[in-house]
């Protein structure tokens, strides 16, 4: 296994930067899609309205959903 410092070169930096940007945008898009699916499967829960009322429980559930979707996306993209 080679270390990053051993295999780094200016030619590979641009490609790595492009790959990081592409995978970052893909991850954000998949996270947004996952959030929309969560809203679709919970039609009776109006997240924005509940958060405006100060419902902390909805915020905690929403944070858990976003973290869970993020973990799935990371494993799907990164392997």
Whole-number mean pLDDT:
86
* SSE order: HHHH
Largest sheet: none
Distance between the termini: 17 Å
Strand content: under 5%
Number of strands: 0
Query: What is the 3D form?
Result: elongated
Radius of gyration: 18 Å
Query: Could you say which structural class the secondary elements and strand pairing correspond to?
Result: mainly alpha
Uncertain residue ranges: none
Helicity range: over 70%
What's the tally of helices? Answer: 4
Could you characterize what this model shows?
With 79 residues, the chain is an all-alpha fold. The protein has four helices and no strands. Helix 2 crosses helix 4. The longest helix has 32 residues, at 10-41. It is elongated. The mean pLDDT is 86.
Summary of the model, kept short:
It is built from four helices and no strands.
Task: Describe this protein with a few key phrases.
single chain, 79 residues, mainly alpha, elongated, cell membrane, DUF350 domain-containing protein, transmembrane, transmembrane helix, DUF350
């Amino acid at each position: 296994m080679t270390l990053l410092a051993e295999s780094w070169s200016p030619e590979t930096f641009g490609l790595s930067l492009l790959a990081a940007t592409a995978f970052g945008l893909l991850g954000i898009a998949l996270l947004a899609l996952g959030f929309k699916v969560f809203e679709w499967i919970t039609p009776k829960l109006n997240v924005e309205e509940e958060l405006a009322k100060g419902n902390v429980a909805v915020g905690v559930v929403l944070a858990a959903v976003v973290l869970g979707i993020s973990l799935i996306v990371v494993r799907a993209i990164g392997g």
